[in-house]
Structures are given as structure tokens and as C-alpha cells.
Write a sequence for this structure.
């Protein structure tokens, strides 16, 4: 092969590549400038869970253990307890409530089975996906954090894709 | 807890059956005659008297609507609410009574005159709806007017002091 | 198709497939043997038939309508259909009725996950509910310190009521009201009973539940370990449900052991001491007058050094070692190794029953469950199994209820079990020897006068006992000396006849017989405690309640005079507070081993949870001390090796291997029966009768329900649930007046 044909080939290739690039410039961007810009997520995105409360602010969870039973990763640990007080003073909707509710995001695969299994609609997926941590302990969420997650949803730096 | 005559009556009842448990129903009648109702203490007393457990006595007392576990008014209006009576409107009759006397079923009026109860079939399905006052003759084919008349009659009877 | 008379089987056809089943079996049982489970609620294998739930209906050829398989006996050639659309439709319909007033609150119900109603509704029920009317609500209420009742979940199978009537012979549960308003309840809202909780375990729904397990972990999260109960000598098999390091419940729902599904209040609710916060969790060594935590190595070396010093300075005899009727056989065996390493003969334990006299004269095998259930005459003398050995009491009333056996009771106390006896002989206190003299053919007048009963009582009792073919004699702790000797060989005292007599010593503690077998009673316990501080200068006490008697202060003074006291226990007992070294032991739930029960049967103890804190099993601690004392201990860290050494040294245990226990459950030890001399027994009885205090008045106070059953022992004290219920009287038994008035039912 002569040197000339090699030069021609190189120039053609370069021109072809550049043409492709230039042609894409006016088109809409598919990348986002995370973390500066909000992340677009679908409505049913399965992010970090939150524990829901009813309209009076009582925890919906009755510690039935179905979420931990269905969990394929065994990421959920619950301890049930009795709230002997009468209904107006209870923390939950029933005398039975979870005294410990713990999700280990080192194990959780965010499959959503727990949400499917919940008979009380107490556990739901939020949209938070920023769960990284430098420690294993940092991946564990206790009940208080999961309850607080519900109100954190509004402040998340995301947009919901419709 | 019972008067000597009634104690004697229970003694007589105990001789009538091979097992003392069989004497429970008539013995309960004897006890209810004296007090008008059968308290837990009375049930316990009868249990010891008959040599059976108090639980066996209470099972029977709560099973039959004819035995009262609570004091009842002077006139115990027992409204039959079993199927034929229900179809013929016993729900309306008992509802009307409740409204008229301002009590719920199972309760007694403040003046102690009336108690309204819902009971099972009294065996007079042909004349439904019907009710029974205490252990007297049935009041049958009830209408609101008949209920009004019945209550008025009983009130007058009580005031007359010859109830 | 023909009935084979030799093997007693017959052939039935199930959905067109011929199967061979035992003749005379109930259809539901016969099908179960074929691996076919017919759904049911009210049927329970050892309760009388009820046939009220209608879930087990099947179609039997040539019979009109569907038939309940729980009351139908198989017949040769019977053709049964169990899976037709008609039957499935019927089950769907029945479940719809049962769920009509059901709250459908499985997420909060403690039975969820092991609920028969839930299982059957899943398998056979409708997806939707057509019942739209208002339900009758019934909030859950506590009906005992141990049991709560959610009446709305009931399906009216009456298993609880039948269990209370027939297993427990109490009858404290009632069906109240009727029709749609019917509920299971109690007389006045609070149970007056033995609080055994068996009604809870047989309940197929979440109607009756344990307060101790209320809203706790779900059954599927529990690790279940089958082990042997640590309370009384009956040795019930229990399943400990643990999650992590905590024991959450103790049940017998699988019914695999000698007790089947039966448990008593202590076995079921007394597990709290295992995870009690008051446990000693690390070794303590006294320094400058105060107990300080130490490492195991330091503590054990300290113990070995001090024991060695005392035995060198004052002789091996100056050291005493105490085992216990509470710890495992392996534990006691290792404790005996310590005594051997020191070379002291002073080894003993606190006996709860004079087993050495009993075993010396016992005239036959120890009666097992099978012996009791197949007996035709049962004689209880001087004991009260209802209060002290609940499983024995349960077993002995079963044949009586079925009319297969006659019960005879002789006691100086008005024991509750007399209500089931064909004859009850009320003795004066100490009158047992005189009664036995009468039974042995002595002068009736003399015997009756000393025993405090009528001569005709003794005569009729004797002829009844002699009429038995399979006689079980239960010898209570009221029999002492000559009376105990005679009662434990009653078979030789009665007239010659063709009968098998078996014996059961009514001992109290879970491993009384094991402690006797392993430690023996060479040196009496009293002689050791009596010479503490005098001829004995050092004491190694394992699980011993040194200061539980009336002479606690005297013992305290004696313990104070010791040169060295080491206490190995679960809790800081009064004696442990005085000790120089306290070694924390593990409970039965934290170790492997064996207990020997009231029938001389060896049963395995299995480890359910890891040892609490840094506690160690008794056998491990003791064998480590023995090794430090210079003994050549062959077993290292293996409990089965300890047991093997035990079986080698004790021929009675030779056949009871771990392997056999694994397959058979309880294995009876084989001990030679004594052949006591009849004339010697009679002369001993005669002199005992002559020595009887004939001025002693009869005890006319009836035994109250729970008089000793609700008595907290050392370990019961630390079980919070039991202690709370028993100490402030929340757990009530039936009142003495009601109990005394009850007219006994001869059979059910």
C-alpha cells in the first residue's frame, strides 16, 4: 500500500467521524449533568424505601413480617411489639407495631417484592437512589430513617418522567 | 342465697334425676324466680350445690334467652327475631320499641319498667311478628298500633299497682 | 378384597385406588397414614370425636349424603371419594361460613403462619367474600396471665374445651351464648385453672394465644430446637423457639415426645430464666473482699490452685463436691471427675426423694408411659402427681377416663386426683406403713387403726390391687423408710398371682434419677452440709440450693467458716454471694446433654441458643477443673465423649446411646430389679406401724389447685412471667370449695 492511499484513507475516516459528531450537535442531549441537574426518573422507579403513615400520622406497619418473609435477599429485620395503649395514643394503626424495622441496603436488591407483599401499604419505594456509603453500617436504615424518608421524597433532586 | 323453701325445692329436684347435672335447668328456674335474674355469684352457688363446674352452669344460662344474666325490668319484652318473624317485620317492631322506649335491645328503661330483648323462635311463626311479655300470653300479629297499645296498657297496669 | 385377621388390615378404595389400612381405624387416620391429609378443624387424634366443623366430609359409596371422615370407621371394601367437585364445593362453603364473622386480621394475628384456618382457607377457600353484613366485633382480652382470647377468630371446634376437660381434667373453658353470638370464654372472664396453655396449642385458629408470644416474632423466623424440659421429673419434650440469642417460646405442638402435645404451665411459660437479665454471665473471683469479673483461665486456675492447697494442707477429705438434680448427666459426671481428681469421697447432691431406698428395694421395672397407659390398676400412694408431676397425672387419668383402668389413691392429703379414683383411702399423716402392712396381709384391725381408715377400706383395696393384671404403683415422697421400701416392692407383698407390677417413684426434679445414677448417695447430703466448716474446709457446689431450707442462717455461718467456696450456678444465689469464686453455668437451652426422667428414661437435651454471655456448660467447666487438678480427662470439648465415658462406667446406661435417643426419643435405662425379702419387709412394716403416731389427726384441708404447681422453684423465680403470675396471685386455680363439691365423673 502506498503512503498516499494511507493518507487519503486517514483523512476520509477523520472527516467521516467529524461529520457524525457535527451532525449530532443540534440534536437533544441524552446525558445529564448529575449532580447539578435533577435526575429524571420514572414514577415507578424503585429507590430507597419509606415507611408510610396513615392520614392521622400513625405508622401503617403492623409488623406482620410478610415483607421480611418474601425478601429474597433477607435484607429486612423486624421485631414486633405490643402497644398496650388505646387507639388514640398509639404509634401505629394497630396495637401490634414494629419496634425494630431495619433494612440492610448492602443486601437489598430493590426488587420490590416487599412492597408487593405488604397488606397494609406500609412500605413503599421512594425515588432516592443515593445510598452509597463508605461503611457497611452506613447502608443500614433503621425505622426512624425509613419513616423520615417519606417526607424526604419531596426534597429529592429529581424529576418524575411521565 | 336462696330461701329455705327454694333450697328444699332444689333438694327435691336433685332426687329426681340420675345425675345432678340434669337438675340444672329446673334449679336455674327456681333461682331466677327469687331474684328475677341469675348473677354470677348465684351461678357459682348453684354449681357448688349441684357438684358441677361454674362453667357448665354459665354455658346453660347464656345459651337460653329465658335465663337473665342481668336484672330486667318489670316487663321483659322478648321480641322474636327468627326467620319467619324477621320476614314479617320483627326488625321494624323491635326498632320501633327501641325508639319508643329510648333504649337499645338488651337494655332496661330508666324507670325500671321495660326491658327489650331479641330472642330466638318462640314457636308462633303463624302469627308473626310476635313478642312475649315476661312469661305471659303472646302478643301476636304485631303492628305499631298494637305495640303502642301494649306499652300503654303495661304502663297503666304498673301505675295501678296491680301488675 | 378380604380382611386379613392376622395383621388386622382391610382394603379400601380411595378415588379408585385400592389401599390397605389398619382395620378399625378412623377413616381420617387411615387416610393420613397413606399421606392424604383431609382438612379438618375439630378432629384431634387423642380427643373424643366432635364432628362439628364438617370440613372432613367425604363421599362414601352407598351412603346418603357426605360423611364425616373423623367419625367413620373403615370397613373392608369401602369406596371413598375425597376430591370430587362436590367435596371441594362443600369445603368452600364451610370455609365461607367459618370466615363469615372472622376479622380477617392475619397480619396482626400471632397464629399467622401456623394457622390451620389460614392454611385451609388458602387451599380450599373462596378468593372473595360474599358476606357483607356487619360482623360482631370482639376485642382481644387477657383471660389469664398467660393466655389471651380473641373470640372473633373462633371456628367452634371445641378442641380447647375438650382438652381442658379431658387432658387436664379441669373444665375451665366454656362456650358462651349461642348461634352467631357464640364465643369461647370463661366463667367470669378470668381462668381458674392450671394455666397449662394446652388449649392454646391445640387451637386451629388465633382465638386463644400465649401472652408470652404476643406480637413477637413469626413462627417461620424461629429456630426450633427439640429438647427436654428442665422443670419436673416427667421430662416432657419441648420445642424451644429461638431467634438469635433469645428464646421466645416453648411449645410441644408437634407432639413427638413422650408427652405428645402436653405441657404444663412451667414447661410452657417458665423459659424466661434463660434470657433473664439476672444471669451471671462471667466468672467472678473475690479480691479484697469483693467479687470482681475475671477471665475463665484465671478463675479456673484459681479454683484448681485453692482446691489443691486445701487438699494438700488438710487432706483430700477436707474437700467436698456437690452435684445437682437440675444439671445434665454429663454435668454431674464431670463434677464427679473433679472429686475423683482430688481423691475425696465427699461427693453428694441434695436429694428431693429417698431414691437409694427406693432403688434398693424396687421390685420391678420403672413404669414408662406405655405401662401407665396400658395398666388396668393404678395405685398412687403418698404423692400428688396433679401438683408435682403434671404429665404423670395426665397419663394416669387417660385410661381411667376410657374405663380401661381403675385408679386407687391412698394419701394423708386430700389430693385432687382422688376425684378420679375408684377408691380413695384417707390416711392419717404417717399412716402409709400401716396401710401397706394391711395390704401385705397383716392384721387388718391393727393396720386400720394405725393408718386411720376402716379395715374394710384396706381389705377392698387389697382385693382390687390383687385383681390387677398390669399394675402400676406410684410411690410418693410421703412414703419414708419402711413404707417406701414396702411400696416400692408392693408386688412381693400382695398375694401371689399372675400380674406385672411396675413402679414409678414420684420424684420432683428434672434429673433426680440421673443424679442418683451418676453421683450415687454414698455420702449423705446432710452429713456433708453438717460438717461444712468443721471437717470440710473447701466446697465446690454445682447448682446446689445450699440455703433454700429453714436452716439457711446456720448454713450461712458454716459456709463462712470454709477456707474456700466455689459456686457454679446460673444466678447469684445466696451461697454464690459468699463464694470466693463464682463460675457462670449455662442453662439447658444452651448446651447438649441428657436428662433421666421419672421413668428412668434418658432423653437428649439439645442446644437451642449460644451460651448467654461467657457462660459455659457445667460439664465443660467441671472437666476443665479436673484437668487442671491433674486428672487425665479423655474428653476434650465433646459432650458425646463425656456421655460415652458415663455409659462405660454405668451399665444401666450402656444401651442408652445418643444414636438410640435420636431415633427412639426416650430410652429406658436397664437396671436390675431387686428381690427384697418379704418377711423382712413385713417385720419392718410391723415395727413402723407400731411406731406410728396414732394421735395424729387427719389432714382435712383439701389440696388447692396450684398449691405446689404454682410454687416457684429456684429457676422459676427468675422467669419473670411465672414469677409475676404466681407471686401476686394473678394465676388462680379453681377454688377449694368448688373443687371439693365436684361430683366425679367416672368416665368420659
Amino acid at each position: 500500500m502506498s503512503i498516499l492511499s494511507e493518507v487519503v484513507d486517514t483523512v476520509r475516516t477523520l472527516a467521516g467521524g467529524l461529520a457524525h459528531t457535527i451532525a449530532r450537535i443540534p440534536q437533544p442531549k441524552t446525558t445529564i449533568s448529575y449532580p447539578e441537574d435533577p435526575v429524571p426518573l420514572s414514577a415507578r422507579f424503585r429507590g430507597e424505601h419509606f415507611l408510610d403513615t396513615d392520614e392521622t400520622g400513625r405508622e401503617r406497619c403492623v409488623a406482620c413480617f410478610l415483607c421480611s418473609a418474601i425478601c429474597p435477599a433477607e435484607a429486612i429485620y423486624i421485631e414486633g411489639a405490643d402497644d398496650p395503649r388505646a387507639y388514640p395514643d398509639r404509634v401505629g394503626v394497630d396495637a401490634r407495631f414494629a419496634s425494630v424495622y431495619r433494612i440492610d441496603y448492602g443486601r437489598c436488591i430493590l426488587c420490590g417484592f416487599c412492597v408487593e407483599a405488604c397488606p397494609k401499604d406500609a412500605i413503599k419505594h421512594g425515588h432516592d437512589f443515593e445510598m452509597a456509603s463508605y461503611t457497611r453500617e452506613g447502608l443500614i436504615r433503621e425505622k426512624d430513617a425509613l419513616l423520615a424518608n417519606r417526607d424526604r421524597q419531596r426534597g429529592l433532586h429529581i424529576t418524575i418522567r411521565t | 342465697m336462696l330461701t329455705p323453701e327454694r333450697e328444699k325445692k332444689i333438694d327435691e329436684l336433685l332426687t329426681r334425676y340420675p345425675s345432678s347435672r340434669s337438675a340444672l335447668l329446673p334449679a336455674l328456674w327456681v333461682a331466677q324466680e327469687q331474684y328475677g335474674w341469675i348473677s354470677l355469684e348465684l351461678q357459682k352457688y348453684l354449681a357448688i350445690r349441684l357438684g358441677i363446674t361454674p362453667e357448665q352452669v354459665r354455658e346453660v344460662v347464656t345459651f337460653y334467652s329465658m335465663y337473665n344474666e342481668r336484672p330486667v325490668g318489670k316487663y321483659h319484652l322478648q321480641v322474636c327475631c327468627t326467620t319467619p318473624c324477621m320476614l314479617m317485620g320483627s326488625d321494624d317492631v323491635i326498632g320501633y320499641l327501641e325508639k319508643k322506649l329510648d333504649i337499645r335491645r338488651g337494655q332496661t328503661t330508666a324507670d325500671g319498667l321495660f326491658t327489650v330483648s331479641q330472642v330466638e323462635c318462640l314457636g308462633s311463626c303463624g302469627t308473626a311478628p310476635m313478642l312475649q311479655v315476661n312469661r305471659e300470653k303472646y302478643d301476636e300479629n304485631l303492628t305499631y298500633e298494637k305495640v303502642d297499645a301494649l306499652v300503654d296498657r303495661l304502663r297503666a297496669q304498673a301505675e295501678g299497682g296491680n301488675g | 378384597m378380604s380382611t386379613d385377621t392376622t395383621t388386622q388390615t382391610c382394603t379400601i378404595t380411595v378415588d379408585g385406588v385400592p389401599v390397605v389400612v389398619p382395620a378399625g381405624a378412623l377413616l381420617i387416620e387411615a387416610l393420613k397414614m397413606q399421606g392424604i391429609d383431609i382438612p379438618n378443624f375439630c378432629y384431634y387424634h387423642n380427643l373424643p370425636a366432635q364432628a362439628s366443623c364438617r370440613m372432613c366430609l367425604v363421599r362414601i359409596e352407598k351412603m346418603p349424603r357426605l360423611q364425616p371422615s373423623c367419625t367413620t370407621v373403615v370397613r373392608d371394601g369401602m369406596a371413598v371419594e375425597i376430591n370430587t367437585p362436590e367435596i371441594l364445593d362443600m369445603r368452600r362453603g364451610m370455609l365461607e361460613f367459618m370466615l363469615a364473622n372472622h376479622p380477617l386480621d392475619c397480619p396482626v394475628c400471632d397464629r399467622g403462619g401456623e394457622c390451620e384456618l389460614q392454611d385451609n382457607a388458602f387451599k380450599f377457600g373462596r378468593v372473595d367474600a360474599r358476606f357483607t353484613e356487619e360482623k360482631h366485633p370482639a376485642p382481644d382480652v387477657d383471660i389469664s396471665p398467660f393466655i389471651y382470647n380473641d373470640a372473633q377468630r373462633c371456628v367452634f371446634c371445641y378442641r380447647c374445651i375438650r382438652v381442658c376437660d379431658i387432658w387436664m381434667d379441669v373444665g375451665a373453658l366454656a362456650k358462651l351464648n349461642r348461634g352467631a353470638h357464640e364465643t369461647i370464654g370463661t366463667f367470669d372472664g378470668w381462668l381458674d385453672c392450671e394455666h397449662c396453655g394446652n388449649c392454646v396449642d391445640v387451637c386451629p385458629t388465633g382465638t386463644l394465644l400465649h401472652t408470652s408470644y404476643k406480637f413477637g416474632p413469626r413462627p417461620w423466623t424461629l429456630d426450633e430446637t427439640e429438647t427436654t424440659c428442665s422443670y419436673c421429673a416427667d421430662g416432657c419434650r419441648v420445642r424451644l423457639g429461638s431467634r438469635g440469642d433469645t428464646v421466645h417460646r416453648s411449645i410441644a405442638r408437634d407432639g413427638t415426645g413422650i408427652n405428645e402435645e402436653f405441657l404444663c404451665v412451667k414447661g410452657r411459660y417458665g423459659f424466661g430464666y434463660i434470657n433473664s437479665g439476672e444471669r451471671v454471665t462471667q466468672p467472678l473471683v473475690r479480691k479484697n473482699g469483693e467479687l470482681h469479673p475475671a477471665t475463665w483461665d484465671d478463675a479456673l486456675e484459681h479454683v484448681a490452685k485453692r482446691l489443691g492447697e486445701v487438699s494438700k494442707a488438710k487432706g483430700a477429705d477436707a474437700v467436698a463436691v456437690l452435684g445437682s438434680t437440675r444439671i445434665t448427666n454429663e454435668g454431674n459426671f464431670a463434677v464427679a471427675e473433679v472429686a475423683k481428681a482430688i481423691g475425696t469421697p465427699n461427693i453428694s447432691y441434695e436429694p428431693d426423694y429417698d431414691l437409694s431406698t427406693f432403688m434398693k428395694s424396687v421390685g420391678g421395672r420403672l413404669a414408662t408411659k406405655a405401662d401407665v397407659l396400658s395398666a388396668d390398676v393404678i395405685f398412687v400412694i403418698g404423692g400428688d402427681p396433679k401438683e408435682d408431676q403434671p404429665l404423670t397425672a395426665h397419663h394416669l387419668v387417660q385410661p381411667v377416663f376410657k374405663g380401661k383402668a381403675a385408679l386407687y389413691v391412698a394419701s394423708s392429703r386430700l389430693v385432687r386426683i382422688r376425684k378420679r379414683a375408684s377408691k380413695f383411702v384417707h390416711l392419717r399423716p404417717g399412716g402409709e406403713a400401716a396401710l401397706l402392712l394391711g395390704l401385705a396381709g397383716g392384721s387388718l384391725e391393727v393396720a386400720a387403726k394405725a393408718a386411720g381408715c376402716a379395715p374394710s377400706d384396706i381389705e377392698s383395696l387389697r382385693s382390687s390391687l390383687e385383681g390387677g393384671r398390669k399394675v402400676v404403683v406410684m410411690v410418693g415422697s410421703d412414703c419414708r423408710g419402711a413404707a417406701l421400701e414396702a411400696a416400692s416392692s408392693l408386688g412381693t407383698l400382695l398375694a401371689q398371682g399372675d400380674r406385672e407390677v411396675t413402679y414409678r417413684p414420684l420424684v420432683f426434679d428434672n434429673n433426680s434419677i440421673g443424679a442418683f445414677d451418676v453421683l450415687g448417695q454414698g455420702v449423705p447430703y446432710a452429713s456433708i452440709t453438717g460438717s461444712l466448716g468443721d471437717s470440710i474446709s473447701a466446697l465446690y457446689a454445682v447448682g446446689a440450693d445450699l440455703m433454700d431450707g429453714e436452716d439457711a442462717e446456720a448454713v450461712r455461718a458454716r459456709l463462712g467458716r470454709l477456707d474456700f467456696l466455689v459456686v457454679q450456678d446460673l444466678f447469684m444465689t445466696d451461697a454464690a454471694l459468699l463464694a470466693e469464686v463464682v463460675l457462670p453455668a449455662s442453662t439447658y437451652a444452651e448446651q447438649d446433654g441428657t436428662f433421666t426422667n421419672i421413668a428412668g428414661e434418658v432423653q437428649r437435651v439439645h442446644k437451642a441458643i449460644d451460651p448467654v454471655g461467657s457462660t459455659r456448660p457445667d460439664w465443660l467447666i467441671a472437666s476443665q477443673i479436673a484437668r487442671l487438678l491433674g486428672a487425665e480427662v479423655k474428653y476434650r470439648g465433646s459432650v458425646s465423649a463425656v456421655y460415652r465415658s458415663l455409659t462405660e462406667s454405668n451399665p444401666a446406661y450402656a444401651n442408652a446411646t445418643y444414636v438410640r435417643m435420636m431415633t427412639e426419643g426416650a430410652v429406658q435405662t436397664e437396671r436390675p430389679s431387686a428381690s427384697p425379702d418379704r418377711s423382712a419387709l413385713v417385720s419392718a412394716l410391723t415395727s413402723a406401724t407400731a411406731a406410728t403416731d396414732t394421735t395424729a389427726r387427719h389432714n382435712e384441708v383439701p389440696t388447692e389447685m396450684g398449691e405446689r404447681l404454682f410454687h416457684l422453684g429456684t429457676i422459676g423465680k427468675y422467669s419473670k412471667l411465672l414469677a409475676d403470675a404466681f407471686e401476686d396471685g394473678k394465676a388462680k386455680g379453681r377454688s377449694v370449695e368448688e373443687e371439693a363439691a365436684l361430683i366425679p365423673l367416672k368416665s368420659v
Notes: The first strand of chain B starts at residue 75 and ends at 80. Chain B has seven helices and four strands. The first helix of chain B runs from residue 4 to 16.
